[in-house]
Amino acid sequence: FTVSRIQTTPFDGQKPGTSGLRKKVKVFVQPHYLENFVQASFNALTEGKVRGATLVVSGDGRYYSEQAIQIITKMAAANGVRRIWIGQNGLLSTPAVSAVIRERVGVDGSKATGSFILTASHNPGGPNEDFGIKYNMENGGPAPEGITNKIYENTTTIKEYLIAPDLPNVDITTVGVTNFTGPEGPFDIEVFDSASDYIKLMKSIFDFESIRKLLTSPKFSFCYDALHGVAGAYAKRIFVDELGAQENSLINCVPKEDFGGGHPDPNLTYAKELVARMGLGKSEPEGEVPEFGAAADGDADRNMVLGKRFFVTPSDSVAIIAANAVEAIPYFSAGLKGVARSMPTSAALDVVAKHLKLKFFEVPTGWKFFGNLMDAGLCSVCGEESFGTGSDHIREKDGIWAVLAWLSILAYKNKDNLESKLVSVEDIVRQHWATYGRHYYTRYDYENVDAGAAKELMAHLVKLQSSLPEVNEIIKGASSDVSKVVHGDEFEYNDPVDGSISSHQGIRYLFEDGSRLIFRLSGTGSEGATIRLYIEQYEKDPSKIGRLSNEALAPLVEAALKLSKMEEFTGRSAPTVIT
Ligand code: VG1
Ligand code: CO
Q1: Residue 178, Cβ neighbours under 10 Å: how many?
Q2: Pair 68, 80 in one domain
Q3: Counted domains in the chain
C-alpha cells in the first residue's frame, strides 16, 4: 500500500471528556473529523507507541463503528503501526479491551501497547445518536489527563494526517491474519475471537465451579440484560455455556448498532424489561421473580445488580464486594491491597476500609484515576456511584466481573445450605447495613440543560461557599430536619503516585453529621450540559436503617434544590433521571 498526506484544518471541541470524545454521529461523519482526532492521538504518543507498535481497535458495535475501524486501520498503517488487532465483528467490551492489552499474545507472539476503543458507553446509538472514541494505554487503562490534554492541543493545530488509501477494507467478520506490505515494511491485521481472552481471565479470578453450583441450584434463578450492548457477545458464553444458566435467563443479549432503539444505561429508568421482571416495575411481573438480576451498559463496563424486588445501590455494591472479597473470590484470597472510590460515590466503602484497616483513596470521577493506584499496588477493589465497579485485574470498570463477584458472594453465603432457604441479595445487603450502618444515597440528573445556565448555577454554588452562615440560613429555611454544613469546597485531587493535581472536580457541601451534597457537570454528554446532584446521608442507628431511601433523603433533597436555585437557573422542576 501507499501513504498519502491529507491536508486538514482543526475542528472545535475535540476535547476528550470523562471518558473520551463523544459526539453525535452526524458530527463524527464530517470529512476529516475522526481522522483529525486519530492523528492528534498518534501525535500525542511517544514514537515507540506508534511506529512498530501493536494496537487494538474495537468497541461496542454501535452505528459507525465498522467505518471507523476501517479508517483507523488505514491511518495506523500509514503512521507506521506494525499490527492492528480487531475483535470479531469489531466487538470488544471496554473491560475486554483492557484485558486484551494486558494479557493477550498474538499469533506471532506480539503484545499490544494501546487501543482505540469505539464507544459512547451508556449513550444511545444509531445515525441520529452518539458515537465515541477513546485511547487506552499499555496498562490497559484510559489515557491519563497529561495525554488527553495533549491530544486536545494537537487537535487545535492539526494541519495534516496520514492514511493508506489503497489498503483494502478489512473483513472484520472472519477470524484470521492478513499481511500487507507498505513503504516501511510489513503490516498485519489480526481479527480474533472477542470473548476467549476475557473468559480465560475471569476463570483465573473466580471459582466457576461454585458459581455453577449456585446457578444450577433449583433454589436460585437468574436474569441478565445486556440492553443490546456488547455484553451480549460475552453473556451466553459465560453465563450459559460456562456456568450453566438457562438460555432464557438472558434478555436483550444480541448486540445491535442502535441498541434496539433503547438507552443502554443500566439503571432503574432505562433497564425497563429487567426492572419489570425483578418485580420493581409499576405492575406485577407475569412469571416468578428471579433471585438475582443484572444489566450492563453499551460497552459492558457498567453493572446494575438487583435482588428479588430489591435494588442494590452501586455505592453499597462496591462496599459489599470489598467486605466479602477475601472469603468469596479466590483472586483476593491473599488480602486486599487497598480500596478506592470516586468522590461522589457514597462513603459506604470508607466504613468497610476503616473496619478492615485497608488503605483507602478518594479520586475524581472517571476510571482513569484508579489506574495509577493499581499500577502502584495500592488498590485492589474500586467503584463509582454510576454503576461502575471493578478491580486491579484490569484497568477499566467491569460489568460482568461485578456480576461474577456478586454471584461468588451469593455462592459463598449459601455454600453450606443449598438445601434450606436461600441467603438472598437483600439479606446480604441488610446484613451489611446492620454491621456498617447505611448510607442513604441518590443522584439527580438534569440532562441537556442550557450550558450557560448550568455554568451560572455552578458559579452560584461556588460563591455561596464563601459564607457558610448564609448557606445554613438557606438550608434551615428549606428543612429543619438536616444538620449543619461545616465545610464547602471544590474537590481537588493530588495523585499520590505521580503528584499530578486535578482541580474543579465537583462542588462539595459537607454536613456535621456526615451528610454530603455534591454538584458536578457531566463530562460524557454530547449536547448541552448535564448537571448531576449527589445526595448522601449516613445512618448508624440500626432502628433507622430500614427506611425508604427517597423518604429518608427528602429533607436533604429539598435543601439541595433551594441552595442551588435549581428551578430558577434551569427551568426544570424535576430531574430527567433519578438513580
Ligand atoms: C459518567 C459517570 C462517571 C463514569 C463516566 C464514564 O461521567 O458519572 O462515574 O466514570 O460516566 O462511564 P460524567 O462525567 O458524565 O458524570 V462510561 O460507562 O460512560 O465509560
Ligand atoms: Co460504559
Answers
A1: 14
A2: yes
A3: 3
Return the closest-CA partner of residue 332 out of 405, 415, 410, 389: 405
Q: 130-136 and 21-24: which strand pairing?
A: antiparallel
What are phi and psi for residue 303, nearest 5 degrees? Answer: -145, 145
Same domain, 368 and 241: yes
| Model pLDDT for residues 326-364, shown as the tens digit of each residue | 999 999 999 999 999 999 999 999 999 999 999 999 999
Same domain, 271 and 325: yes
Q: Is 472 in the pocket of ligand 1 (CB under 6 A)?
A: no
Question: What is the reported pTM?
Answer: 0.93
Best substitution site from 19, 342, 447 to test ligand 1's pocket, by max atoms within 8 Å of Cβ? 19
Same domain, 208 and 132: no
Residue type, 50: V
Same structural domain, 429 and 448: no
Residue 121 bears catalytic tag: yes
Q: Is the CB of 365 under 6 A from ligand 1?
A: yes
- Alpha carbon distance 71, 29 (integer Å): 11
Choose the catalytic residue: 121, 317, 391, 564: 121
When pLDDT is cut at 50, 70 and 90, the band that residue 418 belongs to is low
CATH number at residue 557: 3.30.310.50
Dump pLDDT digits (tens) for 359-389: 999 999 988 899 999 999 999 999 999 999 9
